[in-house]
TrEMBL record:
GO molecular function, one term: glucan endo-1,3-beta-D-glucosidase activity
The keyword Thylakoid belongs to this UniProt entry's keyword annotation: no
PROSITE patterns the record matches: GLYCOSYL_HYDROL_F17
One of the protein's GO biological processes: carbohydrate metabolic process
Protein's organism: Saccharum hybrid cultivar R570
Superkingdom assignment: Eukaryota
Designated name of the protein: Glycoside hydrolase, family 17
Protein family according to the UniProt entry: Belongs to the glycosyl hydrolase 17 family.
Gene3D superfamilies: Glycosidases (3.20.20.80)
Residue ranges with Basic residues bias: 1-11
A Pfam family: Glyco_hydro_17
SUPFAM superfamilies: (Trans)glycosidases (SSF51445)
Alphabetic keyword roster: Glycosidase, Hydrolase
Amino acid sequence: MGRGRPTRRAAVRATPSSLSPRPQESASPRRSLGRRERPRGGAGLAAAQPPAAPSGGGETGEGREWRWQRLGFGVIVLCKAKSITDVRLFHPDTTVLAALQGSGLGVVLGTLNEDLARLASDPSFAASWVQAYVQPFAGAVRFRYVAAGNEVIPGDLAPYVLPAMQNLESALRAAGLGDVRVTTAVSTAVLGSSYPPSQGAFSEAALPSMGPIVSFLASRSTPLLANVYPYFAYSADPSSVPLDYALLQSASAAVTDGGASYGNMFDAIVDAVYAALERAGAPAGLEVVVSETGWPSGGGGAGASVGNAAAYVNNVVRHVGSGRGTPRRPGKAVEAFVFAMFNENQKPEGVEQHFGLFEPDMTEVYHVDFTAASSS
């Protein structure tokens, strides 16, 4: 099930939505696809940016900027009131970044996919990007990562990702901001094999890009961002994928992989990515940050309900907060960003409009206890 292009988005740590269409995950649990640097895992939001105008009403870019100026600080207050510690922004916006100044929230800042070619080919453009979106805010915004592109591997833009990362890193270092690390976000479309998780491997189409990117990240101890969605695997074939396995509430192991047992699909997807990284030459210490995960609360799709969305997101927050890690990385805390902060009425009709934790008026769609990410 594809995802439409967002209007404005952000992710909350335990995340906002992606910029490119989302491929379906494999349906069967037998083929399931799908940190902040501290000892425990955590959850953030992938959606700190405010919602678009009400359905039926158009809104210019200038109108959206005014809307953020009106609502932005309220969104920051909302994040802090809900114990959300980190946000992911899918594209740079100086108005949003200004509102984040002094908030203490960690920020993962993305580039536009359409800027990748120029970022890759023109170091001066990468320098101007850093000068416009990072340098003016660096003293008051806690930048964690810059993400060069979102879900473009494999695809026509894939060859631009690594050179864009390299140019952005050089620009950050030249600006005295070398502590802001550069990475990219991928979907499970990069995997050619994912079952069992230990057999995870990048596809032939993805490997030419992923191999050098893995080397780049490993040499800098920078994590790969991966978007993980058990929901799409479940909804593609609900008769084959146990709902409890997808919701992280199975009472027993659904998948056995050698000596490892998997009671939930979230861990199976993450470990398939870890296995693929190792096959591509990554050291065991290279980390994966789950840069998006979520479950729709409506829209008519299989399993899309408020109850299931609340169960999935709260279970993910508790799971990553426990610090248990995954079967392949026991005791290694996982960081995850929940998608998304707000429901999005400018997405295609259906489940795509219903991944938000909040309505546009900032009322809860369902309650998430983000304190569980640090107190489990």
